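Whether sequence alone determines local backbone shape is best considered at the level of individual chains. In the encoding step, the backbone of a single protein was reduced to a row of integers, each denoting a local shape. For completeness, the protein is quoted in full, as a sequence line and a line of structure tokens.
***
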Amino acid sequence: MKGKGTYTIRKGQYVVKVDPAKCTECYICQLHCSLAYKAACNIERAKIKIDLPRISFTEECTENCTLCMRYCPREAITFTERV
């Protein structure tokens, strides 16, 4: 089930735009995150959480990391630097 409604989250120096309607729950973002930071391909260990219609970040998520955005094949997550 796809989520609805684009929203933004402040994350470090970025404003993160999340569009749950684009998310297909492929979990590629979570797999890359867990592999990079926990040395395991395990979505439960990722710092990004997908529970549509919400996509969120854990408190331990590195403020300036854009890994999830770079690997999302649907561009459901985009980052813009705050001014």
In short: Helices lie at 28-38, 67-71.
